[in-house]
Amino acid sequence: MGKARRKDRESSSVCTDEPKLYLEEAFLERKLPDIDLRVLVDLPAGLDYNEWLASHTIAFFDHINLVYGTISEFCTMSGCPDMTGPQLRTYLWFDEKGKKTRVAAPQYIDYVMTFTQKTITDESIFPTKYANEFPSSFESIVRKILRLLFHVLAHVYHCHFREVVLLNLHAHLNCLFAHLTLFDARFRLIDSHETEILHDLVVALKLLDGGGGTAGATVTSASSIIAGNTNTSGGGDDNCTGAGIQSSSGNIGEPTHTSSIATSLSTGISTEHHHETPQQPPPQIASAQ
Fold first, then answer.
1. For the chain, what is the domain count?
2. Does residue 286 fall inside a structural domain?
3. What segment(s) does the record annotate as region Disordered (predicted)?
C-alpha cells in the first residue's frame, strides 16, 4: 500500500512551464506586506554588514529548508530525475575538479542543504564567539549559498507549487521569495542570470517599480557600505550560463550561529528541522573564492 502511494506521488510530480500555477491571481498572496519586508532588509545603522548578511543567510536557509521539507516526499528520484527550474533551466552539480554531475533534484537539494548547514555552523566562517572575525571571503561564500538556495526555490515553484498550494503554504513561500528578492535587490548578491527565470513572479507579486527595478530598493554593495556610501551598485556572482548552470559549492565544517531574523520572519510553519543527513556523502566541492 505504501509503495502504491509512493508511485502516485512520483507520477504526479511533472515539471512543466505552462501553465504556471504560481502566477495565478488566487495564489499571489503573502503573509507580510512588502513594506515590512523592505524595512526588514535595510541594514540598521551601526550594525556590521557581514553580521547582517550572516543573520539573513541563516534565516533563508532555515525557512527554505522548512518549506522544502513539507513537500520533500513528493520530490523523488524518479519524479524529479533532474534538478530543474522554470524556462527549461537545469542545474548541474560541479565537483572541485570542475566535473559536471547531473543528479536528481532530491540529491542536488540534499547536497545544497548539507553544504549550507556545514558552512553556517563553521565558527571560522560564521563566527559567534567574541573576537572571532568574518573571513575576507565571507561575502563570496554568502553569494554562493544564496545562489544555491535560490535554485531550491526555483525547483519548488517549477515542480511542486501544486503541493505547496494543497498544503496551504503558498503565502509563506511567496513571502520567503519576496524577502530573498528584496534582500538581493538591496545588496546585489545573486547574479541576474540566475534570478531572471522567476522574473515573471517578481512582477506578479508587484515587487518591481515602473522602471524595472525592485520597488523601493536602494542597491548597496559591500565596498560602499564599508566606505559609508550607500549609492553605489554592487556586482553579482557570474556563474550562470543558461540552461546548464554552474552550481558549485564549497566544503566546510561545524558549531552554531543564532539568527534574530529567522524569528522575525516566522511565517507559521513548523520549526521542526526537516533536513536529513544524506544517505551518500556529497562529492568534494570546490571552496568559495
1. 1
2. no
3. 230-289
Q: In whole numbers, what is the pLDDT of the chain averaged over residues?
A: 75
Asked whether residue 79 is domain-assigned, the answer is yes
Q: Cβ neighbours of residue 35 under 8 Å, at least 6 residues apart?
A: 216
Q: How confident is the model at residue 51 (pLDDT cuts 50, 70, 90)?
A: very high
Known binding residue 275? Answer is no
pLDDT band (50, 70, 90) for residue 240: very low
Q: Specify the pLDDT at position 206.
A: 86
Q: Is 159 annotated as a binding residue?
A: no
Which residue segment(s) compose the domain that 74 sits in? 21-205
CATH number at residue 89: 1.20.140.30
**Is position 168 within any domain?**
yes
Is residue 277 domain-resident? no
Residue 170, marked binder: no
Q: Tell whether residue 80 is among the known ligand binding residues.
A: yes
SS3 255: coil
List Cα–Cα distances, 288 to 90, 147, 156, 270, in angstroms: 21, 12, 25, 32
Q: What is the DSSP letter of 13?
A: -
Mean per-residue pLDDT for 140-148?
A: 98
Q: Which residue has the cell 499571489?
A: 28
Residue 101 host element (H or E): strand 100-101
Q: b or e along 123-159 (b: 16 or more beta carbons within 10 Å of the residue's beta carbon)? A: eebbbeeeeeebeeebbbbbbbbbbbbbbbbbbbbbb
